[in-house]
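Fold these two proteins, one after the other.
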Amino acid sequence: MGIDSTKSKCPGQDTAFWKPGDIYDVTCAGCGREIEFFKDDATRRCRHCGTLVKNPKLSLGCAQWCEHAKECLGYDPKEMRENATVGGETQVDELIAAMKNEFGDDQKRITHALSVLEYAEEIMKEEGGNPKVVLAAAILHDIGIQEAERKHGSNSAKYQEIEGPDIAKRIMKEVGLDTETIYDVCDIVGNHHSARCEITPEFKVIWDADLIVNIPERFEGRGTQELNEKIEKLFRTETGKKIAKKIYIKDEEAK
């Protein structure tokens, strides 16, 4: 039996009941930047360097034993403990390392990819999708941008989509991803601006995560009403819309 959506969120996970100290900064071991954590965040990935940082003050409250914990948190605390591993890089870490190597000292594009990854993870918790495809596509969606500039003298969407899939395919083969995942990710990378591919749940997640990060640049100077209309028109998931409005539109106007 699931949670009755008409009821209010349980006090243990409702931020309205939290204390000021339940949201805090943790220093990234990879680069020394500060990362904001909520007390029930198990991990967060640094947007600057990509390091996966564990929450040293993780406090799950009632979610440690509640049968509905996954519906509240987006992950099952019991599964997280059972699946925890020590040492070694995950494929996500390897993909991030490869992306960073491809971009070199282009920190702007590295940060963009890691920001898209973070929002993609957040949207996927609510909307679903194949995690391997979503995470790999988020990291590699713009991987062809530098090659587009080198070969075509332009980083326009058309050239990114031409050059990106081959680079993404090479990286994913080196990391050891399966053929089906590679195919699905390359389909997204080669169409993430034009949307000429099949509009899968994974594509929708990447589309919205990328758009969230690009809003300040794409719609700079737009009024609240116009921005709200753009969000309603362009986004493909309800979760993506909700996140975009929370970030870019005043709370009272986003209701």
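Now the second one:
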Amino acid sequence: MTADVSAWQQAGLLYEIDDEVAWLRLNRPQKRNAMDHYPTGNGPGGMGLRDALLAAIHEVSEDSGVKAAIITGTGTAFSSGADLTQEGGPIEIPPERRRGALTARDDGLLYGWYRLMEAIWRSEKPFIAAVNGPAAGGGCQLALACDLIIASERASFWEVFVRWGLPLEGGGAWLLTRSLSLARAKELALLGEPLPAKTAEEWGLINRCVPHEALEPTASEWAQRLAKMGPPSSGPRGGIAAGPRPDLSARIGHIKGQINAAWEQDLWQTFREEVSLLALGGTPPPGTPDRHDQGSTASSG
């Protein structure tokens, strides 16, 4: 696909690439970065922020020049989730195609929030959430779906659905029960209270809680470490002869995929994927013996 950055901007998403890192900024601060969608968004043809974000996630995944991505918000909030004030309501299926009482389920299966989370989950590019403020509802799930989560001390994580009389959406039940103990997942989901970022760090729900002014510098530094990853200069296999820095971004993507897949499968499936990835090979660091040569030598001895 080709990035339509201008259309995304109209819909409320700022997209830029800086030194192999894509920045995706939710930019509806007047709405606390609530996400609207087709057909009544502010972008061309009714594109909303949720649609633009989904397209940008796919762009990151497809663009070989992007090695990592950061999602953050402008203003005081990361995202308040769905735009409940959107004209026409939350349903994206055209009125003439709706099936009465089944419409909400149909719409969720076709156009639901899970698409954002799955696009990040299945992407082989690492995504960092730089949570600058409250992340509520779908905004909370968006942050938790990212591979690494860094939050400002001003941030909070709010599974607010129970307060709206709704089930957990956007894969929330799946994410919470794999990120927290069952007791804490239930506490967060059933009481419906915001969880401060510092507590989220203590619970292991996020990677880091940092001072607000350190949020973007920290996220940028982590993203650059991913984008510029190289072999160690010392220790195991260290001291490799000088030469061009190998591009390890594909392997980072493979390892992300391994870890995500291991969450969904058993030990044997995990091992089979591991050895399959070994067989894919890749460009070894300079000075590293060829894997096939190693195998030949071992078998001849």
